[in-house]
Design a protein that fits this description.
333 residues; Rossmann fold; seven-stranded mixed sheet; 9 helices; 26% strand; globular
Amino acid sequence: MRAAVISSPGRIEHADVPTPDPAAGEVRVRLEGCGVCHSNLPVFEGRDWFDYPRPPGSPGHEGWGVIDAIGPGVVDRAVGDRVGFLSEAAYAEYDVAPADQTTLLPADDLGPRRPFPAEPLACAANVFARSGVERGAKVVVVGVGFLGAALVRLATDAGAEVVAVSRRDFSLEIAKGQGATHVVPLREAQPTIAAVRELIGPEGADVVLECTGLQGPLDVAAELVRVRGRLVIAGFHQDGLRTINLQSWNWRGIDVVNAHERDPALYVQGMERAAALVAEGVLDPAPLLTHRFAFADIADAFAALRDRPDGFLKGWLDFGPAPIAAAPNDGGR
């Protein structure tokens, strides 16, 4: 099979590697697609703590596709099931995963080939579950990428008044499309804070979701939380230490939630919630997947991820149709 390999910082190639066989309790998935995550940039660009070349398929973790083989002992999945799954090697034509770390994807009128990046949708569902957003709440979402846009939609559906804050005009238009009550450009900190407070009131927001992983927007987000409100850290802060105004956080008595899950079982629960939300029509990932790339063009996908051209929100790799490549094996199902 073909797999992508980050051979050195800034260089990604394709390699022919053995197709994996599922072990006991595992399934093999023929990839239909895989999202390209912003958290992949450091390993692509290079950091001192990474070794190269990286393992084939790494660090792809937003894959979905069709099960084409199952290992011994698998009873609740079958060849032909379309699934999202947890993995770290999904930049490849085939990947394996524990059967209990897969989620059946919903069928709908848009057809079986609807892109469905289950892992990032699970992130959105899990972050929202921990945010405590209630009907009538004043909510600010700082940073409107894929995750922020999905959270705008979920907060709006919950009946909240939502203000979306983002640097890019395109992202603000996306936020409007996801139901944001107001949008505010993210510029210098104090003018941005003043503009949001003018909309929601000087006391601040009940819940603020920070979705950038950057120091500046974190500062803005923290200042917008009301007394005894909640600051939800949804952004992935992976490039060093952060400074915070703990005196202000302490005085206001705000709750700070680091809304990242590491337990695979909780990720699976998030994927299941996300699948249900898509089936119900609450979430639609299609408008948020702005750039499609053939698997052969994965280097272009990473370049777009790095450069973020106008109109770019999230890219994904298209592996093409996923035929059943292995002989059926019901695994005792």
